[in-house]
Design brief:
Layout: H1 21-65, H2 74-89, H3 95-101, E1 110-113, E2 132-141, E3 151-153, E4 157-159, E5 165-174
Antiparallel strand pairs: 1-2, 2-5, 3-4
Helix pairs in contact: 1-2
Domain TadE-like: 20-61
Keywords: Membrane, Transmembrane, Transmembrane helix
Pfam families: TadE
């Protein structure tokens, strides 16, 4: 009678040649698990920054509407109001990231006054209402050297792959010509 036949199905039978297989499999899987966990954290932060940049650009554009179009240097007032609004909305960012994206007090925020025909720059819409489109744009560089360390894994490549920058845009129509 064969001694293997009388063993119950619950008893583990491990041949001697598989004793280190688990450790080898774990050694192959561990770098992948670490890369996935790291990418999860990085992409979560990138998503929060993306939503915040878009929200700040929209808030800056909405703040531009509050400027009285009848005052002197309305374009300068709109620009300053949009920049200070964006700086206050993005106040939660670390100083180095805020300085790289919007500059001190929002000075790096681009405020473009478009012609009603749609000319004047990127993101300028064509309108037929006689209003002036104002585009507020924020550029957030993601490949700054101190933002996220990039891992180079063999056979996988760069983890996590990121775009060079995130751009947030807000557009508003100001009544009349500026």
């Amino acid at each position: 009678m064969d001694p293997q036949r009388n063993k119950s199905p619950e008893s583990p039978v491990q041949p001697k040649h598989q004793s280190g297989a688990t450790a080898i499999e774990f050694a192959f899987v561990l770098p992948l698990l670490i890369a996935l966990t790291y990418a999860l954290f990085v992409y979560s932060y990138v998503y929060v920054v993306y939503e915040s940049i878009n929200f700040a650009a929209q808030q800056g554009a909405e703040a531009a509407v509050a400027v009285d179009p009848g005052v002197d240097d309305v374009a300068g007032l709109i620009t300053v109001r949009a920049q200070t609004t964006i700086a206050s909305v993005l106040d939660w960012l670390p100083e180095s990231q805020r300085a790289a994206s919007i500059g001190p007090n929002g000075s790096a925020v681009l405020v473009t006054f478009c012609s009603p025909s749609g000319g004047g720059g990127q993101y300028c819409p064509a309108v037929e209402t006689g209003a002036t489109p104002v585009v507020v744009r924020i550029n957030f560089p993601l490949l700054a050297p101190n933002l996220f360390p990039v891992l180079e894994l063999p056979l996988i490549g760069t983890v996590p792959p990121l775009p060079a920058a995130i751009v947030g845009v807000g557009v508003v129509l100001i009544p009349g010509q500026i």
